[in-house]
Design a protein that fits this description.
- It is built from 7 helices and 9 strands; from the N terminus they run E-E-H-E-H-E-H-H-E-E-E-E-E-H-H-H.
- The chain is α/β, with parallel strands linked by helices and 222 residues long.
- It has a single domain, classed as Rossmann fold (3-Layer(aba) Sandwich).
- Strands 3-2-1-4-5-7-6 form a 7-stranded mixed beta sheet, with helices on both faces.
- A hairpin with a 2-residue loop joins strand 6 and strand 7.
């Protein structure tokens, strides 16, 4: 039986942590508005279509072209940590970026495929109830199950060039020519195993087999 190619839109793609372990008959379009970061993504995923533009506007104009949409809007204006820094260290306060909720409402109303919007736990009560897993919020039109414990690791010295995520080969030394904040760049990534589990959950692939293959995570619900 011939399988259908799954057309995926990966918004605010960064360097593609969430996309790292996706396989199968897929066609991925990644949107990232920082050219340097988009180049790193393209180096990691040469077969993906990478577009340097505003992800929010791209979603509005192209959502009908896809079967699965993943959106990870910028989180600093919603983050509890950012609020603590503002209150404790004099960082400049900012309004929460409501594009996050615009995208959730938009996808709920108009998108017919599978979708997920991911962000950090906020300093305020979420305006739309999310599924909460660990330190992250997930809004989606499918159930998000157990996602395991964090696998972000660094060596004993905490060197920025050795900072990496378990289960992937995206290490900071791979993009040493990047001029921006490398630590923030990699810390902003969705962990690859989480990206894979959510992708499989969206299409109801067998989770027990998946968990066994990708590190033997405890399959009990969060």
């Amino acid at each position: 039986m011939e399988t259908k190619t799954i057309k995926i839109l990966n918004l605010y793609a960064g360097i593609g942590g969430n996309r790292k372990l996706w396989t199968g008959d897929i066609e991925v379009t990644a949107v990232e508005n920082v050219p340097e970061i988009a180049k790193i993504y393209q180096d990691f995923f040469p077969n993906d279509k990478v577009i340097v533009t505003d992800a929010h506007q791209f979603l509005l104009e192209h959502f009908k072209e896809f079967d699965f949409i993943w959106s990870s809007p910028p989180c600093p204006s919603h983050s509890r940590i950012n609020t603590m820094l503002v209150n404790g260290r004099g960082f400049k306060a900012k309004f929460p970026d409501m594009k996050l909720y615009e995208e959730i409402l938009f996808l709920q109303a108009y998108f017919k495929g599978k979708w997920i919007v991911e962000n950090v736990r906020s300093f305020y009560t979420p305006l739309i109830k999310p599924q909460e897993r660990g330190r992250h919020y997930y809004w989606s039109n499918f159930e998000i199950g157990y996602l395991g414990k964090s696998k972000k690791v660094r060596n004993d010295k905490g060197s920025i060039l050795s900072l990496k995520m378990k289960d992937r080969e995206m290490v900071v030394s791979d993009f040493k020519d990047y001029k921006g904040d490398k630590r923030t760049l990699i810390n902003n990534c969705v962990e690859p195993i989480v990206g894979l589990l959510i992708f499989e959950m969206a299409f109801k692939k067998p989770q027990k087999t998946l968990l066994e293959q990708k590190g033997g995570l405890n399959s009990s619900q969060a």
